[in-house]
Amino acid sequence: MSLQVADADRVRTLTLDRPEALNAFDEALYDALADALLAAATDDTVAVVLLTGAGRAFCAGTDLHEMHRIATDPTFPRGRHGFPGLVDALDAFPKPLVVAVNGIGLGIGCTVLGFADLALMAADARLKCPFTSLGVAPEAASSYLLPLLVGRQNAAWLLLSSEWVSADEALGMGLVWRVCPPETLLEEAHRHAALLASRPLSSLVAVKRTVTEPRRAGVAAAREREGAAFAELMGGPANLEALAAFAQGRAPDFTALPPGW
């Protein structure tokens, strides 16, 4: 199983468990996490979901080996939910979502924070939105949610630079709520999740709905814009150079791209 599920104190902990791939999402893991969120949403024994990762990474984004196959093989089998279905499940999740970033977080491993109600981060963890280094566009409504969360210029740096952000930088810009020593991160995250879970479920759901409902139209519009841009760029010269460089273990060279790319 690439996703571990554990319940305690009305908190369901979902642990991404592909440590050999730094918990990168393949189609199977997208499906597994989407299914787990959908199940938790309708389970009255679950008041809060806590999301974290196994091993030294939180989530290394989309599995680039699989992305390369998808970009070059139109017959590659896709998941039942895939990436869009996971974002649907995150956007619609009606209960508090607590994220514990235990290690590196790239791509969706960073942009998922736009859907988190509380985010805690290990002091030695790092985050990156690698879209421009992959020759693609933002995803998971991050072009809308990140400016709301951290301000326009911080969001611009995250989305345009493809540079790492430290835990202290993430805390300073408001991308995460708390930074913890690595050895106490999960304990602290569960403690806060359990405190929330001790409140009435009906009230938790009502509070989250009143907070998130005003942004739904903006999220939907951003996803549509991002999807169109991603479809245009994926498989293009910049993206193929980035994926080939990754497969060959070298840095991408964008200097020889055709004009406009």
From TrEMBL:
Source organism of this protein record: Nocardioides anomalus
Compartments (UniProt record): Peroxisome
Name of this protein: Enoyl-CoA hydratase/isomerase family protein
Major localization class: other
InterPro entries: ClpP/crotonase-like_dom_sf, ECH/Chromodomain_protein, Enoyl-CoA_hydra/iso
Keyword Isomerase included in the entry's annotation: yes
GO MF term (any one): delta(3)-delta(2)-enoyl-CoA isomerase activity
UniProt keyword annotations, A-Z: Isomerase, Peroxisome
Organism taxonomic ancestry: Bacteria, Bacillati, Actinomycetota, Actinomycetes, Propionibacteriales
Pfam family of the protein (one): ECH_1
